Q: What sequence folds into this?
């Protein structure tokens, strides 16, 4: 989903009836939302703008579900700017995104607390959600009856775009999809909460602690090893994810864990390659495809 290119003045105008006269300060953004800091008499907040409010509603659900156990921003208000844009105002938590930590020693020290935070997320059994995959927190509806179907859907892409570079060969795409299909046949059907994007931009850290877990838009019901596979996928590109993946994998005891991680890594990698091609970033798509082709 493309980031909504709204002028800051338009966003300020939309927030004025509820928050009065305000100023927004630009901060580091995600790939799909505009983001700003808001200093207000009531406190420090984050304002995000997206074409959909689905992720914002998941953020609110995550705080109500896990907020007593993990530092998750509280959603103060979700509103609409126009027919195509929604905004969310949430509390601002202390800390910096873990990606900004580049010292190897510090990353090694952070790895255990990162693993602990993710294990808390994955320990949740969302039994009230009837199925697997993406979910609507308001209705408890999910997208699939079986977890393996979620994974197969992720991998169901031929990566055929006008800008697909020649190094993304259709024969290799087909081979990788076949590997996913084979590995997915034996995936466990034990529902747990999956964050879906726990990695470089969404954990906040400070003084050796996780001070925030952000952006629950990709959260779903599935296998916790999906989160670890996503971390391992990006490990060659991001030192923070490499340190976390190394620590978390060293704790695994399930004999089929390597096969499950490989299955998810390939499926996520195929879908992410498709995403970057569609977003007009063929160089990043090529680098990511080369990463999964070596698995």
A:
């Amino acid at each position: 989903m493309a980031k909504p290119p709204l002028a800051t003045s338009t966003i300020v105008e939309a927030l004025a009836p509820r928050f009065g006269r305000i100023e927004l300060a630009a901060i580091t953004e995600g790939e799909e939302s505009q983001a700003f800091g808001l200093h207000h008499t009531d406190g420090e907040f984050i304002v995000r703008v997206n074409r959909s409010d689905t992720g914002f509603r998941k953020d609110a659900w995550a705080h109500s579900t896990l907020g007593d156990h993990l530092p998750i921003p509280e959603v103060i208000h979700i509103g609409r700017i126009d027919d195509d844009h929604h905004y969310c105002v949430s509390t601002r938590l202390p800390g910096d995104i873990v990606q900004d930590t580049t010292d190897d020693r510090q990353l090694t020290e952070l790895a255990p607390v990162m693993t602990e935070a993710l294990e808390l997320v994955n320990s949740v059994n969302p039994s009230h959600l009837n199925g697997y995959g993406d979910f609507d927190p308001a209705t408890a509806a999910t997208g699939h009856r079986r977890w393996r179907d979620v994974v197969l859907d992720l991998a169901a892409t031929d990566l055929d775009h006008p800008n697909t570079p020649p190094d993304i060969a259709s024969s290799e795409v087909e081979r990788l999809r076949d590997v996913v299909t084979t590995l997915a046949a034996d995936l466990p059907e034990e529902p747990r909460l999956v964050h879906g994007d726990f990695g470089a931009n969404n954990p906040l850290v400070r003084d050796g602690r996780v001070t925030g877990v952000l952006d629950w838009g990709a959260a779903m019901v599935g296998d916790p090893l999906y989160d670890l596979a996503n971390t391992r996928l990006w490990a060659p590109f991001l030192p923070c994810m490499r340190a976390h993946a190394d620590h978390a994998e060293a704790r695994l005891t399930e004999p089929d864990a390597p096969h499950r991680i490989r299955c998810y890594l390939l499926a996520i990698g195929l879908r992410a390659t498709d995403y970057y091609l569609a977003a007009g970033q063929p160089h990043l798509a090529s680098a990511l495809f080369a990463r999964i082709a070596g698995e």
The chain has a mean pLDDT of 95. The chain has two domains: 8-91, 96-293. The CA atoms of residues 180 and 263 lie 5 Å apart.
